[in-house]
Write a structure and sequence with these properties.
Layout: H1 5-18, E1 27-31, E2 34-41, E3 44-49, E4 60-63, H2 72-79, E5 83-87, H3 96-112, E6 119-124, H4 127-137, E7 142-148, H5 168-178, H6 182-186, H7 197-201, E8 206-211, H8 223-232, E9 237-242, H9 255-267
Parallel strand pairs: 4-5, 4-6, 6-7, 7-8, 8-9
Antiparallel strand pairs: 1-2, 2-3, 3-5
């Protein structure tokens, strides 16, 4: 069927405000009504969701894990003109290889696509490993970190070396990703809870949302350790605790999280 020139022009005019004019090569679809692109970059599967009306400066939120799970915060920020992005490094557990993939994707988005030089990082569960290990290397590129029931020590999860349940299969993959033996892992100092001084000096604001009855990522083995060390290093951190809640993400009302992110962005301008 041949499309008449007038109809074609109207189609293009309609698509550009919807975000389709901001071209990413790859599979195109809609995600919750927003233009959605799937593609490969740096040998990893990636996703980008484009806001209908990008905000000035092209702000973006970088989700680290569990694409599409509890998207309330992502949807509010898309409505406010943020881009939503993802690169799958889940089974690299925040290792140097994962950080290298994030470095490459960051360059692609900021240099080739003109995204803002600072990103909002969102790390759920094991996503905490990569958001912190990347942020500690690149504190000047981070607006803030929103971490939700985040893993902050591989010995807690997937290691299960204290009170957490652990995951033997993930632990084996994690050791391989880092190139560690069991003995070396017991003395490992490359976790999110370690080396926080530069991030704290840069005053990157942190927000953790956690259940205090989490059997998978116990709060006292992860968030509470990071909170204590970050505070002692002079960094700003808030912890929202959900009493009696296990390994469950998000808030029914995402307003406190969204406000935290928008206030952090305003403080960077």
């Amino acid at each position: 069927m041949r499309i008449q020139p007038g109809i074609l022009i109207l189609l293009v005019v309609w698509l550009i405000p919807m975000g389709w004019g901001d071209e990413f090569v790859g599979e195109k679809s809609l995600w919750n009504g927003y233009p959605h692109y799937r593609f490969w970059y740096d040998d990893r599967p990636c996703q980008v969701v484009v806001p209908h009306q990008p905000a000035e400066g092209k702000p973006w939120i970088w989700r680290a894990r569990f694409w599409g799970h509890r998207p309330e915060v992502d949807l509010v920020l898309l409505e406010k003109g943020f881009y939503l992005v993802y690169i799958d490094v889940a089974n690299l557990y925040g290792s140097p290889r994962a950080v290298a993939h994030w470095d490459a994707f960051y360059r692609f988005l900021t240099v080739e696509k003109g995204f803002a030089p600072k990103a909002v990082l969102e790390g759920m569960s094991r996503g905490g490993l990569i958001v912190y290990n990347w942020a500690k290397k690149n504190p000047e590129k981070v607006v803030c970190i929103y971490a939700d029931a985040p893993v902050c020590d591989i010995r807690s999860w997937p290691g299960g070396k204290s009170e957490g349940q652990g995951s033997p299969e993930d632990w084996a993959r994690c050791l391989a990703a880092y190139g560690l033996t069991e003995e070396e892992a017991s003395q490992f100092r490359g976790n999110p809870i370690d080396g926080l001084a530069l991030l704290a000096q840069t005053k990157v604001p942190l927000l953790h949302v956690c259940g205090d009855a989490d059997p998978i990522v116990p709060i006292h083995e992860n968030t509470r350790v990071l909170e204590k060390r970050y505070t002692e290093a002079g960094g700003p951190i808030q912890v929202l605790v959900k009493p009696g809640v296990g390994h469950v993400h998000g808030l029914d009302d995402p307003t406190p999280i969204v406000d935290f992110i928008l206030n952090a962005l305003a403080g960077n301008q």
